[in-house]
Amino acid sequence: MAQQRNQREQGTAGVKTGLAEMLKGGVIMDVTTPEQAVIAEQAGAVAVMALERVPADIRAAGGVARMAHPAIVKAINAAVEIPVMAKARIGHFVEAQVLEALEVDYVDESEVLTPADEQYHIDKWNFNVPFVCGARNLGEALRRIAEGAAMIRTKGEPGTGNVVEAVRHLRTVLGEIRRVTAAPAEELGTLAKEFGAPLELVRRVREMGRLPVVHFVAGGIATPADAALMMQLGADGIFVGSGIFKSQNPAAMARAIVRATLHYNDPAVIAEVSESVGQAMAGLEMSTLAQSDRMQERGW
Amino acid sequence: MRIGVLAIQGDVREHRRHLERLGVAALEVRRPAELSGLAGLIMPGGESSTIGMLMTESGLLDALHAKMAEGFPVYGTCAGMILLANHVQGARGASPTWLGGLDVTVARNAYGRQVQSFEADISVSALAPEPVHVVFIRAPRILSAGSAVRVLGELDGEPVLVEQGTILASSFHPELTDDLRIHRYFAAKALRFQEEVAAQPAR
Fold this sequence. Notes:
Chain A is of the alpha/beta class. Helix content of chain A is about 45%, strand content about 15%. In chain A, α5 (about 95-100) links the parallel β4 and β5. Chain B has one domain (about 1-200): 3-Layer(aba) Sandwich (Rossmann fold), CATH 3.40.50. Chain B contains five helices and 13 strands. Chain B has a nine-stranded mixed β-sheet with strand order 2-1-3-4-13-12-11-8-9. Chain B has a four-stranded mixed β-sheet with strand order 6-5-7-10. Classes of the chains: A alpha/beta, B alpha/beta. The interface between A and B is large, with 41 and 43 residues.
């Protein structure tokens, strides 16, 4: 009896946003080696972000920061079962093509790397691999979604160990969503113009009462309490960049941040997990950062 | 009737929405005590290693294991199926077994990485004739199933929806599309369990 082969559709919006749905409530960790990826997986990370240097080191080294070397991406892909993400420069669609060919599970078009295009982001609809993009406000988030992003992370300020910008950007997006949901229908066009966002997506936000895709936070989360703070404020999940492998005891910090992200409403658990982590990464005060050193300003 | 959704991590919201659209009260479960009074539990998609580790730490794994021994209905989707499988294979050999109870061997991510993830129509005999449109995301593949396992749905001749007693499991995500039939099928299992428990003499 000949069985007809079922039609399979790849790279659909459902498939792209679907993986992000599976990551909710979890922690995604920056890693630079296969060994770090294994530490992250064993600590309970839901995905790893493969890159050459964590943001704190990119900040310290200066120069041009690019996509990770393919050999690093391949080695990390081979080392873990959990999804592997990797960063491409803003607008550098060939880096994204390379990462897709390497079969990473998500591409982060990221302001942590030096932008390759100061006018245009990648046309993300052209890819089968899904994209996550940074945003500081609702308009930026919806512009990225209009370009095909299947997941949003508010930017924060990477590599600082200072959660203040992450809080600012999450509160800004959620506050603007509240403005949209409270607005009568006839005001949506003017709001869309103000945000610089497509009206259709502003309507979707009003219907859903949230971003139309999964909404993580990033940029400055360095302790279990930081992670729980972002979850209590309403994030779907957490990216931790330098906060883990720049801390004194990465395995313990990774585990503690994972547990605090789950039990974000339970201060006793957050206290307990915070005891075991050793010293967090050193932090940077925002006023010591020159305007040109603020990665969050990259992207438009 | 109340059905729980394991809310450690993953697409909890989508399962809750499906249950609520069926008129079933959906409760989030994070702690052992939250299992009481439920007619069944859905374990969502997510990362099985993360969910299994955190379930173990909180005592939820042991508590659920004990309830399943009494016939408590559980439906696992994707990562949830990995948690239910008696044998799990990873790319580098055996992966941990978590709850067990479903006599299958599954291979993690064996339909490929994310770029190979797909949507497809599958035929489910119990829900015929309309096929069910579902999403496979870095899905686990059922390599073999014991004789007590009944295959309900197939993709290209391979099992993707199976049941064993009150356990239901799928490689795919029915919660990411609008079709409620698989959740309705599980809710019927949960209702039977609830009625059996109610019919037992009080101890």
